[in-house]
Amino acid sequence: xxxxxxxxxxxxxxxIWMTSFSDMMVLMLCFFVLLLxxxxxxxxxxxSALGSVRQALGGHPPPPSTPLVAPDRHTxxxxxxxxxxxxxxxxxxxxxxxxxxxQVEVSTNPRGIVLRTKDQILFDSADASLKIEGRPVLDxxxxxxxxxxxxxxxxxxxxxxSIQNSTFPSNWELSGARxxxxxxxxxxxxxxxxxxxxxxxADTRPxxxxxxxxxxxxxxxxxxVFEYGENTPPLLGVPVTPGAD
Length: 245
Hints:
Layout: H1 17-38, H2 43-56, H3 73-78, H4 85-97, E1 104-109, E2 112-117, H5 135-148, E3 151-157, H6 171-188, E4 196-200, H7 213-219, E5 221-227
Parallel strand pairs: 3-4
Antiparallel strand pairs: 1-2, 2-5, 3-5
């Protein structure tokens, strides 16, 4: 059979390189369409969408952007209010008037006001039974909670010495049991159960070195965190003198 097509005649259709070129042009078209749509977006949306395009093209996503403008007044009003110096002073005066200044340390963290009990005020070593001597501390916590109207976190902590017995297989169970015992007492004093939560952290959040007896004593503690929210009022209404209005 005779082949009428001369040798060396190119195959019909577009050259191979046109396929890659067409793909690139389609991507460029999509990119410019996106740029046009970005003209109606804010800066944060543009940054996010641009990162998606870069990833689709094989690049690395850009780092998270930092807001270019400060929050407006309405946004700022929704942010949690941090404890003020008058708040802290009022709490210390409140505790001192009840003879608890030496038993409870007052400080702050980004969550709010922290009351930290000192060693063996509430519990004996390796035990989760509340001591009678610790009840005035819990009564003061309850009264502060009512006056403040804040969420209350009850957090149990231990030192790093391991414990293993039939009651507490580890420090996790011990710290959790202590926090639960405090919670039961507070609920018996009619504290709103919707405003309190508990946690046991064992020895994972020390406040001092466990290398010394003094440091371990500081780490064995229960903390009460009054968590400030956007509607938390100042503590100026807390009566300093017991029984005062």
